[in-house]
Structure formats: C-alpha cells, structure tokens
Amino acid sequence: MKNFRLITITHKTANISHIGQYIPSVNADPQRLVETLRQIKSEMAIEEFFYLCTCNRLTFLLVREEPINDHFILQLFSKLHPNIPMHCLGGLLDVIATYDGEECVRHIFEVASSLDSLVVGEREILGQLKSAYDFCAKHKLTGDNIRLVMKMAIPVGKSVYTHTKIGENSISVVSLAMQEMLVHQIPVNARFLIIGAGQTNDLVGKFLKKAGYEDFTIFNRTLKRAQDLANTLGGTAHVLEDLLNYKEKFHVLITCTGANEPVISEAIWAELNTADCSMIVDLAVPNDVARPIVENNDDLEYIEVEKLRDLAAKNLALRKKEMVKARTIVDARMEDFVFALHQRKVERALSVIPDQVRDVKERALELVFQKEINALDEQSKALILKVADYMEKKYIGIPMRVAREAMEEELLDLVHGGKHRSENK
C-alpha cells in the first residue's frame, strides 16, 4: 500500500481549458503513447504505471518505492512533452495534486464513483476508467497491485450507482452541453458538422438523434470510426484531412478530438462555408477551435467545457446528500481493499511453497532414500510414490491454509475493531 503514488490534474485544480496543455503530445497516437509510457516507466524506476486522460482530468497512478517530489513530477512531464524545456513547466506544480498510499486508492474509488467528476453522478467515467486500465494492462504497463485496485474500483462505482440516487437524472458533460444548445432553439432541420467520432461525440450523436435531428456530416482522423458513427446517425463520413475541401453549409459545428493543437484553425475556418453557422460546441480539451475564431465572431454561440462549470455546480448541490452515502460505500470498500491487498501479499509469499515441498519430496526419493526404494518390488515402489504424492499435496495445503486463516483473523481485528466481519455487513 505504501508504494502507491498518484499524480493528477483535474477541473478542481486547473482551468479545464488549460488541462489540455499538459496532455501528452502523443495522446492521439496509441502506439507512440505506449512507447512513451514504457520509456518513462523504465527510466523513472516505476514498477507499475496507469494512465487516465479524459476531458477534465489527467491522472497517473504509480507503484514506486521512492516517494515522488517536485523534481520527479517535472521530469515526468518533460518526458511526456519532450519539445518543451523543463523550465517552461514551472506553472505545472501549481495545478498538480498528489497522493500517497491509501489515499491513492481512495481517490481512484472516488473517480470510479463520479465523486471527483465535474458532473457528480455521470456514468461515463466508469467506462473511461475501465478502458484506460484495459489499455495499460494490455501493454503490460500495470501489474498485480494496480490490477487489484481496478478489480475493486469498477464494482465500487457500480455499487454507488446502485445503492444511492447519485446517478438519478444525472447530467453528464455531454448532456449539459446539449441542454445548453437546445436553449437556443436550434431548428430540427439544422445541419450538423461533427468533428471526431470518439465516445463523447458518439453520445452527442445519440442525444441529437433522440431530439429529432437528422442531418449529420462526420469527419474523423480514421474513416472507419467516422463511418461507424455515420451509420448510427444516418449521416455521411469523411476523413479529417478532407475537411479543407468541404464546401457544404452547416448550422452547428460540434467537435471533440484528442488533438493537442486546434483542429479548426483560422485557416480552415476561412475555407469552410460558415455563412449559416450560428453555434460551435467544443467539447475537446484542449479546445479544438482556435480562440480567435470565437473572439472575432460575436454572432456565434460558443459552448465549451469550461463554461459548463456553473451548471455542474448546481448539479453538485443537488447531490450532496447522495455524496455522503456514496462516501460511506467507498469507506467500506477501502476496508475490503486493505483486506484483499494483504491477502494477495500472503498468497504471493506462499507461492514458493509448492516448489519447495516438491523439491523436498524429489530429494527424498532420488537421493536420501534411493537405495532403500530401489530394493523394493515394483508394487511397493508404486505405493511409496503414491504416499509421497499424497503427502506433497497435504503439506502444500497446510501452511497456506494456516497462514491465510491467521492473516484473516488479524485483519478482521484491524479492520473491524475485533468484531467479526459479518457483524458489520
């Protein structure tokens, strides 16, 4: 537990529009991202490395014997942004939050439960957390300790949604943006230009489809993802690089990509047929739309994640009672995690016993009592081997069972103050 370390930048510590500048420059390229994370893990003495990036958070959960300090954090981010000199990352320390040991696990549980979300009660974070872990586990960045955290974090999130009202009529970042859009009474025959075909825009598309809109054009870095979304919405699909050649009129531009630079630059905006465009919904972090476009067009309604803070604050006020209940669940699961972590530690320690018992058996049969056994008839030899195999299995089981029972009793006293676990359920 003491080797868990967590580094994070969230909507609580930084302006959402600024979080994007700290997102790894290779974030949109999975292969390069994996290579970068592997290099960092190797060079910075990190045993296990988990990476989570969403529209309002950047989080690293590490297993590392040495504590983290300001120098470590600056070194980490300089490797994530190799083109930025370390001295240019000075402001980074003002927006970083760090945790150690048990608080790292608690933070992940609260993230899974949406207690740390911009919009408390939103469910998207659970899927994002699972996808991020699957990605890191697939590329062998994580190990047994983080596996145990995530194995419990996902059920913790589900339990909070099941046993509290924190998710009732929940308003996600997407639905907040869509509600803000609908306030402006966009006509049902409006044409939508959608940039990006990831999870966020998939949710946006479903929301718009349900609201009765039917005219969609989707651009994405890869054509397949664009086609998948277009098939769902009944729209047309294009690769992002063809955006410059798109001359059709549109009424609403919705964009959310993982790019580190504006996808809609001033040059691209100048080439688009923007005569009928009255609204831009930019859900990307960092923003996909170059700031001068918004600042120089007073007639454009502009919706971005940062502007949704006020609506999110109202959401938080309505859910304060449910947050108390949710934290009670998190507290209980933290006790379960301590139990599971110690149990796993004992299991790893005892994993050498089968090989050691087997070595003792083979030494006895092949060296210590070899002459005596060779003097026996075949039937007697077979019986001796049968007895030895039986004793091997029994001797393997006894110390493991005794150690596990002793550990369980000790942990039950520690976690439940000497009372049996069932009395506290």
Protein model, in words:
The protein has helices at residues 16-19, 30-43, 70-80, 92-95, 102-112, 124-138, 144-163, 173-182, 199-210, 223-233, 266-271, 291-295, 309-318, 320-350, 353-368, 370-374, 378-416; strands spanning 4-10, 48-54, 57-63, 97-100, 191-195, 215-220, 236-239, 252-255, 279-282, 301-304. With 425 residues, it is of the alpha/beta class. The protein folds into three domains: 4-169, Beta Polymerase, domain 2 (2-Layer Sandwich), CATH 3.30.460.30; 173-306, Rossmann fold (3-Layer(aba) Sandwich); 344-424, no CATH class. Helix 10 (223-233) links the parallel strand 6 (215-220) and strand 7 (236-239). Helix 15 (353-368) packs antiparallel against helix 17. The longest helix has 39 residues, at 378-416. The chain is elongated, with a radius of gyration of 28 Å. The two termini are 24 Å apart. Residues 418-425 have low confidence and may be disordered.
